[in-house]
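Re: weekly structure request thread

Next one in the queue (480 aa):
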Amino acid sequence: MNHIFCVVCLLLFSPSHDGPFFASGIKVGESTQTTAIVQVRLTENESADFSRLPIFTEGLPVGEQSAIEMPDDVVPGMAGQVQMEYWIDGDESSRRSTNRVQVNETTDFTHQFRLTDLQPGSQYRFQVNARASADAADTASITGSLRTAPQASVSAPVTFIVTTCQAVRSVDAGRDGHVAYQQMLEFEPDFFVHTGDIVYYDKVPLARSASQARAKWHLMFAYGHQRNFHRFVTSYFMKDDHDTLKNDCWPGQRYGDLTFEQGCEIFRQQVCMGDSTYRTIRWGRDVQIWLTENRDFRSSNRDPDGPDKTILGQPQKDWLLRTVTESDATFKFIISPGPIVGPDKRGKADNHSNAAFAHEGQQLRDFIATQPNTYIICGDRHWQYHSVHPTGIEEFSCGALVDANSRFIATSATRAASWWCQSKAIRRPLNGFTLAKSMTQPDCLGYCTPNGLWPDVNGLPANDSLSCHCPCQSAAAGQE
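Done, posted below.
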């Protein structure tokens, strides 16, 4: 799959100079074997007003302080109609079209096309068209592709990418945003998972109201590299604290005029999302992922620890334990916004590796230790590591998307809650993302463990020695 990164080529085809347009691009996500969601937002202009604030294209140097507020009209929306055409790549006879749908300010000028009856393991092409009204001509079109998951009976190589922690203040490619998105696209992933902190409401430019919070989403996906990536790659979005409300938040809190409940609603509006923010996706015979929701159902961080204190909430925890146990996938990945094993930095009290949630954390670790070929990939931590718990559980931290958000934690052993885990950390403060591969090899009866890589923001391995081991014999034994 070849992609052209020329900014001119990324601009949406616009047969008219009048709106509406797609300044914030398009998002493709939530693919299963037969369904997918495509999210669009109609805008008044063809691009964001990047000249509004220097930070939009220059970022904020590390250590520099600012209290600048987020303008809420950098990518103004526009009412209009959207319609989508989609077809299996190479098969024009499969072309289908949706009805025209009216969008307005009630939904922040967004719409999510919920596609059904798709073919498993297929590449689809699509085009979304926009017009101002029923009697108007199309004013803009955007094209892209999506991929559906293979059936659970099909064994095929799988490549996916996980990342976390990006911000307006950390842009490193001007109007193109974050260069890591260009590099990730070069790996041609089957799908992409963002574990949260997609935007930071409580970091400059500050978003203390619902309109400012939405504006941060509009801007983040208006950058050139982000727009190009998300129109070609099937994505699964998760949220954490900063893109819900503020650092280490829980239900009932506020940040300025923005409430926790508003933050949850805005997230679901701005990304592709089905009925639940916690879900599991099967990607062929060999790979299944679980995406947890770590904000909506949690206790206050300040509550005393014990059996009733929770991050997941009982219904989600029951679902997680049941579905992981029932799965016959060769490799299972529990993808969490925050660490379950750690290490973490001192003073944290917000995730399952912290003493503040030791009871539920231990419950999860005890369970995962009983599940063969089950790995944890976590976000939130601003450094990349591979930790092995005494029970044998392996956790991979994907690290922040960009170097500007990186933290250097150089330690070979760290105390988390009341136990010791061995952790290998990246020995230089670089970040990027985690690339996981499931490969078919004859001597492994078709199975091989994911080859965990941590490319830096330029797509180069930051530390080759951190690749996972390859338990092909155990995978083969499981098939006997």
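Residues 1-16, 408-431, 439-454, 461-480 have pLDDT under 50 and may be disordered. The radius of gyration is 22 Å.
Next request, please.
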